[in-house]
Specification:
Blueprint: H1 20-34, E1 38-50, E2 59-69, E3 75-79, H2 86-99, E4 104-105
Parallel strand pairs: 3-4
Antiparallel strand pairs: 1-2, 2-3
């Protein structure tokens, strides 16, 4: 029988996404884009939160999805969250502080 691929939170990778929840949201967003409700859909968008410093690597956040709403032109950044870790909470707050972006959790 085929071996299933799990990540650190025991989510099963599905269709190249980190979880079934993320794969389902991606499929939904792709439909929205196809019918013109959204545009510029992107997956795994990287944002640098703290630049590299001597002896340290940069700190980044990778959003699951980013798209533009066709009605109002607003950019949306989404994260398919099953579990909020302390690290995620800090990165979410840094996204708001550094970029003024409020991450939408789905």
């Amino acid at each position: 029988m085929g071996r299933e691929s799990y990540n650190k939170f025991r989510n099963i990778r599905t269709d190249g996404f980190a979880s079934k929840r993320e794969a389902a949201k991606a499929a939904e967003l792709q439909v929205w884009q196809k019918v013109g409700a959204i545009s510029e859909l992107e997956f795994q968008v990287k944002y640098e939160l703290i630049p590299k410093q001597e002896g340290e690597s940069a700190l980044s956040y990778v959003a699951d999805f980013r798209y533009r709403d066709s009605k109002d032109g607003k950019i949306h950044v989404l994260d398919s969250k099953g579990m909020r870790t302390d690290v995620y909470t800090i990165k979410r707050k840094l996204m708001r502080w550094v970029y003024g972006i409020i991450i939408e959790e789905v």
